[in-house]
Amino acid sequence: MVAFPEKKTLSLFSKFITRTMGLNIREDRLPELVQKVAVASRDFGYDDAEACMLWLMSAPLSREQLETLARSLTIGETYFLRDPQSYRVLEEHVIPKLVNSRRQGGKCLRIWSAGCSSGEEPYSIAILLSRIIPDIDNWNISLLATDINPAALEKARQGVYSQWSFRDAPPWLMEYFRKRKDGRFEIVPRIRRMVLFNYLNLVEDSYPSLVNNTNAIDIIFCRNVLLYFEPAMMQGVITKFHNALLDGGWLFVSPAEIPYREFKGFTCRRFPGALVFSKGNRVEENPATWPEFTAQPAFTANRAVSGSVAAPVLPAFSPATSAIAAIHLPAAAEAAANREYTGAAPTAEKYLEAAGLYGEGRYELAAAKAGESLAAGEDNGSAMELLAKSYANLGRFAEAREYCEKAIAVDKLRAHNHYLLSIILDEQGEQEEAAAALKRALYIDQDFVLAHFALGNLNRQSGRKKESERNFGNALHLLEKRDPHEVLPEADGMTAGRLAEMIRAMA
Q1: Three-state secondary structure call for residue 259
Q2: Structure confidence by residue, pLDDT tens digits, 105-127
Q3: Distance CA 123, CA 117 (A)
Q4: Residue 491's closest CA among 475, 505, 507, 477?
Q5: Is the peptide bond before 208 cis (omega within 30 degrees of 0)?
Q6: By Cβ atoms counted within 10 A, which residue in 34, 220, 291, 361 is the most buried?
Q7: DSSP state, residue 487
């Protein structure tokens, strides 16, 4: 029998878990917490749960300690197409609207499964995308899946599941799996390759961020996660989600975790059996005017999945409802961007205001103010760089690339702009060009940690394992020379120690 800790110790540890992991442990679940910590204590070398709690609270948690606790405390219960009504909203309304709006512009979609557990949710989304978009090979789709539990992430990367993960799933789902000799089911490679799994702590890590690919998101799935957070933590995460989403972007949460008042800056959309939030308080259109939506036992269960897939009938899309509102810079700003750079900077007032807006996640206003900075004759290079970053966070990658290239023309030896260009090129699906930009950044500055890290990521995604390991090794070698608490330049608040932990987990 596990010895129950003193009430004071247990109360302090519960608050400690909330502060570091965001998990809100209700009083009636404290005995369950003790049992789980008792199991984790053995991994830490303790026989007594209370002694282990006191030791864990004595200093900030290391990545290894946090992972061990995450394995013990977080719940990974999920299955494919869980909560089918939400997936039906995604399939019949949200994705068709986005696809329609992007066919004339860049064919790109960015989706984030936050708290993905063992991967059933992001793979379900990937499968739906492959069914909905007939020319999916011509699209640049980013499907990011993150979690705090490394064991769950490793299972997700393997993509192998037991029959229990398919309970209540429609029969056509099995077309996307191959049965193994051990009786389990492995997801087909083309679906597995669509999802990028990464570690991310929703409470402690920075987002939106170009560094961890959480910027300019169209759709965020974060279901059955927020209900474990205390109100202050929940509001912080929701605010970050709001900043990470494009204007008009979509947030899917579980109906059980919704106090609506917490979702400031969102409009609640009600569907039969599902609630979805869209970024923005204005009403884009009345959902009642969308294609008829009726509850069914299994959504679109009769659609063929073999051979060619018929293109779905997409609802009409009005330019007035575009997810990205255009920013028109004054003509004088465009002229300033193209004139010869003299190095003169009469005042940095407008640029500093733009930088402040960017730091607050107000990217449209930051871009507009940076344009005014150019028109006022302020430092062209810095303003162009800020414009590029703002546009990248707005998902306007063509404009981001234009201003990044102009910033590089002003100062070819600023390594960060070559790094920024690589991120933009990667988002545009130009991986080889992105790698070349990173190599230019490293030619200028061999100690540029983020460039080594980004190049390792590119090589990892392309299956170049040895090159990736070498890149990550170079980054770790440089990080070990730094104070772990040092905030890295241009890393959106990430510390040297945090990046080192991420690299070790990925490698």
Answers
A1: coil
A2: 778 899 999 989 889 999 999 99
A3: 11
A4: 475
A5: yes
A6: 220
A7: B
